[in-house]
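Record passed on underneath.
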Amino acid sequence: MEGGENVETNVHESSPLQELQQQETSLLALLKVLLSGRTLPHLVLIFLLSSALFWAASNGGESFAAIGFLSMAGGYLLTGVFSGFAMVRRWIQLPQEHASEDIGRVKQLVFSFRICLFPIAMAVVAFGVLISLVGEQGVLGDQTASLQFVLGSCFVVWAVVQGRAFSRWLASVSASRLPDQADRMEGRLRRSGVSTMLLVVALATGVLALVTFIKDGTVSVPDLLVDNLLFYGALVGLFALAWRRSNGAMLAASNRSDFHAFSTRWMLLTQLLITWHLLTVWRHQAMTPSDELRLIEELLLMMFTVVMAIWGLTSKSYRSSMQMIHSHNALPVGLAFGYAYAGSVAMLTAALDNVENVMILGHGVVILTILWLQPRIIFATMGDAATSERIREVVESVVPAPEPSAERHDDIVAASEGSESSSAEAEVVSETAGESPADVSESIGEQVAWSEPEVLATDVDWDDELELLD
């Protein structure tokens, strides 16, 4: 049975549940890297430049803004490529020691932006490459107008990346602190479904009440329910759709306690995320939040999207010999994604003349992405573990047969003696009964006169020699 234990151990080491638990632990380290004070000027720079380029795109400078966003994204991407060198890392990070007290705080703040010079230099290189390819005198001709379309079309890609990154993080959270593996009765999903729906509706009602109180100063529960009746209808409809699509996966996961706990948590967290996106769309349409609140909300969403996207790439290469994203280049690559994301929003805003419609489109794409991922994540998480469970059952079933006891041996001997005596009696009976059929068979047909068959030419005399004529 040692071989079976080795098989089980090897499969257990590569379990998707353990991989998700390890990915959750890597999130805190990534946040420390991205939000480090030594790299704070990079975050300030992306806020300032994105705001300036967004203003340019909204006032007729779409081509200039598109080239600017793409150049900054390419510059930080090149910075991430070269961040493996220690010298480059010293250029893009502030030193750990404290600054001298002789330098004032304002000068110290301005001087700290020196770490942005190398990414800006790489952005100039990327700008030169773009102009040489798609500029007025470029190799491909004047294609600057097409950059707006390409960058705006990438918004759907960024929204899908956002949904996948959020879902991957929620899956790692759902896989933490699971109960021990144990068999349970398959099914019994109605109770968890009802409790999940009630919890989602209660939390959504609380958020609506809070937003209404901030806006009007008073809250009336009956008026709140009536005014947001369409929202509750959409919420229940999305919940029913998600539960119907994931019912087969949850049913397959319900025969083990750890799988069942994971699927229940996963569905709860993803439904909360879907509800938050739906609530954001509803607030933009029906509750008309202030422009300042909307800007802050979408800015925080963009920052969290960047963090989750980089964490997703980091966790995929966790403990890999060929890491695409690591602690040295996580921030530059994240900022490159941030510039590209902000550029897509700016291009769509200029095309649709309203940033609100762009954000609603993004929230809708994220909702559809999460609905698509809900059953797939459950099956993917339990796939390898279910295979290992089957291997364990097969290995445990291969057990040597037990040796027969003395009493069982006596029973077998007695049964064999009884069978021998019964077979002897059967032979005697068969010999006695076998005589009469033999006699009967000999008397059959003795008194019958059989006639011989007639043959043609039996009375003809044939010559011994035959003559053949031509």
In short: The two ends are 92 Å apart (CA to CA).
